[in-house]
């Protein structure tokens, strides 16, 4: 979801910048417009909810033996992920109803142009729902619920990991060190989430009236949106620092790409030897764009 979120955000703005503000990817057709509207919110919500549940999972793993024995299983995790994806799809599905095409006559060129209006609907009830009720839904899903859960779980995790325990068994000591490292990584990810998303919400919910109508309005809104989407790319950075398997896979990928570019032979991985003594873990007419409303994420 982080990857999709970054692509739909960056690709659209890069295309807009390279065309000198004349074109946007998700406004070139009604289909792309509807996809851009939906994924703009759906990817943000799923990423926020996954981070929230991961933090909740880590807090329960550190403090509840029953949870570790009964709930912390791959099958249960897949079911929870499917429920989250399906619930958010239903919640955001109405966004496919926004966006419509209309035609205008260009007097300078003498050509009838078909324009695409994104984030608007001819249905006044649907349009009002998007601008009023959905704003509060987005606020709850993207900020209030994640912030509340993250803060509570962070306090529980910090209280647990700062207690220095003495282990006589080397395996238990190694496991405790690994749990502490993963917990610290999640804490950094959660703090990053709060720091990078809070300015965006303050600008669009608290200070919007004070910011609108100035020369710097677009710059401020773009900066807060960019900061918010930066969080998605930082998650990969935290994984690289904290997870050994992720670092190994990234290094191998870079090695393969480098050797392909230089024409050198690619070493074959010996899976049999690698896993010896180690437990296996699972883990039509001319179309132009009318897209006057930014995503207020």
Structure description:
- InterPro entries: GPCR_Rhodpsn, GPCR_Rhodpsn_7TM.
- One of its GO terms (cellular component) is plasma membrane.
- It holds the Pfam family 7tm_1.
- It is found in: Membrane.
- It comes from Rotaria magnacalcarata.
- This protein has 297 residues and is mainly alpha-helical.
- It has a single domain, classed as Up-down Bundle (Rhopdopsin 7-helix transmembrane proteins), CATH 1.20.1070.
- It has ten helices and three strands; from the N terminus they run H-H-H-H-E-E-H-H-H-H-H-H-E.
- The chain has a three-stranded mixed beta sheet, with no helix packed on it.
- The longest helix has 38 residues.
- The C terminus is likely disordered.
Fraction in helix: 55-70%
> Which structural class matches the secondary elements?
mainly alpha
**Spans where pLDDT lies below 50 across 5 or more residues:** 271-295
Shape: globular
How can the largest sheet be summarized? 3 strands, mixed
CATH class: Mainly Alpha
Written as H for each helix and E for each strand, in order along the chain, the element string is HHHHEEHHHHHHE
Number of helical elements: 10
The CATH superfamily is known as Rhodopsin 7-helix transmembrane proteins
Number of domains: 1
